[in-house]
Write a structure and sequence with these properties.
By secondary structure, the chain is α+β, with helices and mostly antiparallel strands. It has 15 helices and 35 strands. The protein binds guanosine-5'-diphosphate.
Length: 600
C-alpha cells in the first residue's frame, strides 16, 4: 500500500517566521518576556536606568530580571515608545505554535483521551487497573498491571484511551509543558469520604484547562457510602449533577468490585460524541510523549500518544530537542502493530534518547529535515536554558534548596519536579538542578556535591557502589516511592531552613488598683489579675483610657515580700515595669508573649 500521508514539512516551513526584536521608528517590536539587560540593549539605554526606575518603586531587580509583556509595555510608555508584540514561530516553539489545519473532508473521528483524577486513596489506581485488566483487547498476557503511561480499551465498538498515571501532578506537569492531551477528566470521589483538598485541586485544574469532567462516585460498596453528601459537596464546588440541574454526568460504582464501569464507559462515549473529536489519519503523526524509559534489552522504550496523523515504523520524529527513528511499534500491552492512528497510545523503540513526558512530537519522513530541525531546536533550547539558569533569581534574603530528581520514568520525574517547585515561598527557592530518568550515576553525585544539592529518588534505589560514593562525598540521597511522602519531607526541610515566625499571644490582663512609690525602685503597681495570667519577665503594654501608652517588660513580680513566677486570674500582686514609672490607678497591664507559629 502506498503511503499517502501528508508531510508535516510544508506547514512548518510556511509558518516559521523570524522577528527582529528592535526599536524602529519609535515602535518597539518584541516577541515575549525578556530580561532587563536584553531590553536595555534593544532600546539602547543603560540597564541601570531601568533598574533605578524599579528601585524608585521599591523593587530590587538585577539585570537578569525577566520583564513580562506588561512590564515591557509599561516601560515603553515610560520612554514614549509605541510597542508591538509579534508572534514568532521558531525552532524552539514551533511544536506549540505551528497550526495544522486539515480540510473537513480529511477528518475522521478519533478516540477520546481520558485522565483520572481525585484525592489520594479515593481509588484512582484501583479503577484504572480494573479497567485495564478487564477491558484491554484480548490476546496479551493476562493480568499485567505494568504501567506504560497509557492504554486503550474498546467499549461498544468505540475505543477509549486512558492515561494511566493518575492524579493532577501528571496532568499539570504535562499542561505546564504545553501538552493538552486530555480530552475528558474522570474525577474519582470516594462516597464515604466526599470532597477533599485534592478533589478541589483536581476540579480547579480541570476547569483551568477547560476540559469536561465526569464524576465517578467510588466505593459505593462501603457501609459509610453517602452519595447524596458527595453530590452536595461537589455542587458547592460548582460541579453539579444532571439530576440537580447541572451538566455533569455522575456515575456511581466501585472500582474494587468493578461496578459502574460500564456506565462510566457509556458516559465517556456520550461526552466524547459531544466533543466531536476529529483528526486526519492521512498525515505524518503529531502527538505527545507520555513516558519514556531505558529498557535493558530494548534500549529506549517510549509511550507516545498520537493526536493527529498516523505513526509508522521507519518514521522519524522530532520530540523535545532531539530526533530519532522509530524501529518498532506496539500497543501499550505489547502487541506488535504496523501503525498507530489518532487517539492511539503506542509504545515505540528505536529512539536513541529518552524524550520528556509532555514533549510534543512531530513525525517526518525526511531525515535531513528532522535532523536540522532538532539541531536548531536543541541550540535554541540550550540558549534558553542557560539563560534561565543564570536567572535563577534569588530575592534578597531568600535561601536556595538545590535538588536533583531521579525517577524510574520520565512522567514521574517531571511530576516530582513540578510538585517540588510548588513548595517554594518568599524565603526559600527550590532549584531543581537536574531532573532525569534512570539509576543514580557518579555524575549525579558530583553535581550534587558541586551544587550542594540533595538527591531525591523515586522508585530508584542507589546501588552499593553509588551509595558508598555518595557517603564519601557527603551527598544526601533520599529515596521515595510515594509522592506525598516526599513532598512532606521536603516541606519539613524547607521549614527547617526558614526563620521562625512569631505571633503575639495575649496571656492576661491586670487592673492597677493602687500605686506604691518607693524611692529606690520607683512606682510599683498593686494589681488584680482580671483574666488570664502574667509571668515575671512578661512583655507588657500599659493601657490608659483604651490607649497604649507604653510597651515594656516586667522586672519584678511579687506578692508581699515573695517573688512570684506567675500570677493567675483573681490573684493580686505587685509589679514594676522596667525603667518606667508613669503608672496610674485604673490603668490596665496587658501581658503578652511571642509564640512561634507553625511555619507554612
Ligand atoms: P488512589 O490513591 O486514588 O490511587 O487510591 P487506590 O486505588 O490506591 O485505593 C486506595 C484504597 O482504597 C485501596 O486500599 C483500595 O483497595 C481501596 N479502594 C479503592 N476502590 C475501592 C472501592 O470501590 N471500594 C472499596 N471498598 N475500597 C476501594
Amino acid at each position: 500500500m502506498s503511503d499517502k500521508r501528508k508531510l508535516n514539512i510544508k506547514e512548518i516551513k510556511d509558518q516559521l517566521t523570524s522577528v527582529n526584536t528592535e526599536l524602529k521608528d519609535g515602535v518597539f517590536v518584541f516577541t515575549g518576556p525578556m530580561s532587563i539587560n536584553d531590553f536595555a540593549e534593544a532600546i539602547k539605554k543603560p540597564a541601570n536606568e531601568i533598574i533605578t526606575h524599579y528601585f524608585k518603586q521599591g523593587k530590587m531587580y538585577n539585570i537578569n530580571h525577566t520583564l513580562d509583556e506588561e512590564a515591557i509595555a509599561e516601560l515603553c510608555l515610560e520612554y514614549g515608545y509605541d510597542f508591538q508584540k509579534e508572534n514568532e514561530v521558531n525552532a524552539q516553539n514551533f511544536m506549540e505554535q505551528v497550526q495544522i489545519v486539515d480540510s473537513e473532508s480529511d477528518l475522521q473521528s478519533r478516540p477520546p483521551i481520558i485522565t483520572v483524577m481525585g484525592h489520594v486513596d479515593h481509588g484512582k489506581t484501583t479503577l484504572i487497573d480494573k479497567i485495564r485488566n478487564a477491558n484491554v483487547a484480548s490476546g496479551e498476557a493476562g493480568g499485567i498491571t505494568q504501567h506504560t503511561g497509557a492504554y486503550q480499551v474498546e467499549w461498544k465498538d468505540q475505543k477509549i484511551t486512558f492515561l494511566d498515571t493518575p492524579g493532577h501532578e501528571a496532568f499539570t506537569s504535562m499542561r505546564a509543558r504545553g501538552a493538552k492531551v486530555t480530552d475528558i477528566v474522570v474525577l474519582v470521589v470516594a462516597a464515604d469520604d466526599g470532597v477533599m483538598p485534592q478533589t478541589k485541586e483536581a476540579i480547579d485544574h480541570t476547569k483551568a484547562a477547560g476540559v469536561p469532567m465526569i464524576v465517578f462516585v467510588n466505593k459505593m460498596d462501603k457501609p459509610g457510602a453517602d452519595p447524596e453528601r458527595v453530590k452536595g459537596e461537589l455542587s458547592q464546588a460548582d460541579v453539579v449533577a444532571e439530576d440537580w440541574g447541572g451538566d455533569i454526568q455522575f456515575i456511581y460504582g466501585s472500582g474494587l468490585k468493578g461496578e459502574g464501569i460500564d456506565q462510566l464507559f457509556d458516559a465517556i462515549n456520550i461526552q466524547a460524541e459531544l466533543l466531536e473529536l476529529k483528526a486526519n489519519p492521512n498525515r505524518l503523526a503529531i502527538g505527545t510523549v507520555v513516558e519514556s524509559r531505558i529498557d535493558k534489552g530494548r534500549g529506549v522504550v517510549a509511550t507516545l500518544i498520537v493526536e493527529n496523523g498516523t505513526l509508522m515504523s521507519r518514521d522519524f520524529i522530532v520530540a523535545g530537542s532531539n530526533y530519532g527513528k522509530i524501529r518498532t511499534l506496539e500497543t501499550t500491552v505489547g502487541q506488535k502493530i504496523e501503525e498507530a492512528g489518532p487517539g492511539t497510545p503506542v509504545t515505540v523503540t528505536g529512539l536513541n534518547y529518552t524524550p520528556n513526558a509532555g514533549d510534543k512530537f512531530f513525525g517526518f519522513q525526511d531525515e535531513k529535515f528532522a535532523k536540522n530541525l532538532a539541531e536548531e531546536k536543541a541550540f535554541a533550547d540550550k540558549q534558553a536554558d542557560l539563560k534561565s539558569r543564570s536567572i535563577i533569581e534569588v530575592k534578597e534574603g531568600q535561601k536556595v534548596l538545590n535538588v536533583i530528581v531521579k525517577a524510574d520514568v520520565q512522567g514521574t520525574s517531571e511530576a516530582v519536579k513540578h510538585s517540588l517547585q510548588k513548595l517554594e515561598n518568599d524565603e526559600i527557592k527550590i532549584n531543581v538542578v537536574r531532573n532525569s530518568v534512570g539509576t543514580i550515576s557518579k555524575s549525579d553525585i558530583l553535581l550534587a556535591q558541586a551544587s550542594n544539592a540533595i538527591i531525591c529518588t523515586f522508585n530508584i534505589r542507589p546501588t552499593g557502589d553509588v551509595k558508598k560514593y555518595a557517603e564519601d562525598q557527603k551527598v544526601e540521597i533520599r529515596t521515595y516511592s510515594i509522592i506525598y511522602k516526599m513532598l512532606e519531607e521536603v516541606e519539613d526541610m524547607i521549614n527547617g531552613m526558614m526563620k521562625p515566625k512569631y505571633q503575639e499571644e495575649i496571656t492576661g490582663e491586670a487592673n492597677i488598683i493602687k500605686v506604691f512609690s518607693y524611692s529606690k525602685v520607683g512606682n510599683i503597681a498593686g494589681c488584680l489579675m482580671e483574666k488570664g495570667y502574667i509571668e515575671s519577665g512578661s512583655k507588657v503594654r500599659l493601657i490608659r483610657n483604651g490607649r497604649v501608652i507604653h510597651e515594656g517588660v516586667l522586672d519584678s513580680l511579687q506578692r508581699g515580700p515573695n517573688a512570684l513566677k506567675r500570677a493567675d486570674s483573681g490573684k493580686d500582686f505587685g509589679a514594676h515595669i522596667k525603667k518606667y514609672d508613669d503608672i496610674k490607678e485604673g490603668d490596665i497591664i496587658e501581658a503578652y508573649k511571642d509564640v512561634e507559629v507553625t511555619k507554612k
